[in-house]
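Summary for the funding panel

The consortium committed to producing paired sequence-structure records for every protein in the target list. Below we show the first two records in order, beginning with the earlier of the two.
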Amino acid sequence: MKRNGFTLVEIIVVLAITAILGLVLTQIFYSTLRGGSKAQVLSVVKQNGQAAVEAIDKTIRSADKVVNLCPSPFGIHASAVQTGLDCTTNCSGIVITKNKVYTRFLYIPADFSDTNNGYIAMDNLTSPSECLSSTFGTNLSVLTDKDSKTGVSIESGIFSLSRLAGTEDVVTISFSVKPGSSIQSAYPDISGTPFKTTVKLRSQ
C-alpha cells in the first residue's frame, strides 16, 4: 500500500538534524565573525599605539631640550611614584621646549577620562611649572582615539629620562594599549599591547 506523507518519527528526526546543523553553522558563523572582529580590534590597537609613538618621537627628537618630568596631576595613583619609581627620572608627564615654546605630554588614566579610556595628551604651556596642572594648555591634542567603542585605552604611560654630563638627553617612552573600555569585556584574551621607544635629542 502506498504511503502519503511522513510519519511523526521521520518528521522529528528531520527537525532534530536541521536543528543540529543550524547550531553548528551558527557557531561557525559566530567564530568567523568574532575572529574577524578580534583582528580588527588588534589592528586598531596597533595603529593607535604606533601613531602615538611616532608623534611623541618626532616632537621630542627635534626639541631643544627636556625641561623636566612630572607626576600626573590627576591623582597619586596615576603617577609613577605609586609603582615605586623615582619620579625624577620616571614620570607620567614630560615637558620639552622648542624655540621657547613649551610642549607637554601627559598620561591621563582611565579614571579621569570622560570615556573611561586612558590616553596621552599633548598641549602647550606658558611655563614648565604648569606640568603639574590638571588644566590643559593651548593646542590640546589627544594622540589616540579615546572613543569607548571604536578607540583604545592607554595603560601605564611612563616617560624616563637619562641625562649625563656632556651628552644629549635620552628619553624612553613606554605604555601599553588595550581595546576601548566598552568592548574590553568582549575580548578578555586581548591583553595590553606594549609600546616602547627611546629618543635621543638631536645635537644643537
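The next record, for a separate protein in the list, is shown here:
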Amino acid sequence: MPSIIGKALLSGEIECHYQPIVNIHQKEILYYETLVRRKNKDGILIGPLDFLHTIEKKKLAAHLTQEVFWQSSKKFSDNQEHFSLNLPLIAVSDKSTSMMLESMIRNSNFSERIIFEIQASEWIYFQEVFSLYIHKLKDLGVRFAIDDFAHGKFSFEMLDYLETDIIKIDGKFFKSGPNLVWKSTIVRSIVEYAHKNNMITIAEEIDSYEAFHNAQSYGVDNMQGFYIQRPASWDTMENKELDWLQKW
C-alpha cells in the first residue's frame, strides 16, 4: 500500500514554497530556500513536520529530493535568483538520485546559483559520504551550506574538511532567555571564523524582534525566519512586497 508521501508524489500533491534569506545591511535577498509542502485533497497545505517523518524507505526519500529539485530548478531557471534546497544523506547515497542531480546540474546554465543545504547532524557522522560528492558538485559551481550549525556536536575542523561556503547558525542562539553571554561568545567566534575564511553566516529562525536584535548585535549579517518573511508560493513571493522591507 502506498505511503502518504508515495501517494503525494504520484498525485502531484508535493508543492514547493520559498523563504528568502536577506542581508540586513544591504536590504537585499541573498537567496531563497526551497521548502516542501504537501497539499491534501481539500487543498490544505501541510508542513514537513507533519509528513516527512512518515518516510521510511530510502527510495521514497530520494524520489522526494528529485521532485523538489526538479520543481525549484524549473522555477529559477528563467530568472537570476539564487536558491537552495536540502540535500539529505539518503539522496546522496542513492546512486540513481545522485547521478540524476549531477546530470541536471551539469546540463544547466545556472549551477552557480544552486546551494545545497546539509544538516550538521548528518554532516558530522557521514563526512566521507558527503565529501566526495560535494567536491564533485563544487567543481560545477554549486555552493554548499551547513544547516543548524552549533546544534549539538560541532567543530571548525569539520568546516575546513568539507570546505563549506555558508554557515547557517542554529536559531536557539538568538532567542531571548538565559546564557545570552555564552550564546554571544559562540556566535561571535563562528562569525569571526567565517569572515577569515570567506564564508557567509546566516542566523536561522529569526521569529521575533528580540531574535533579530540579538543576531544583529552578535555580528550576523544575513537572516532567515518568520520575522523576516514567512515561506510562500513563488507566485505569492514574487508579487509581494517583503515584510522586512516594511520594518526597517
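Regarding this second record: The longest helix spans residues 58-76. The chain has a mean pLDDT of 83.
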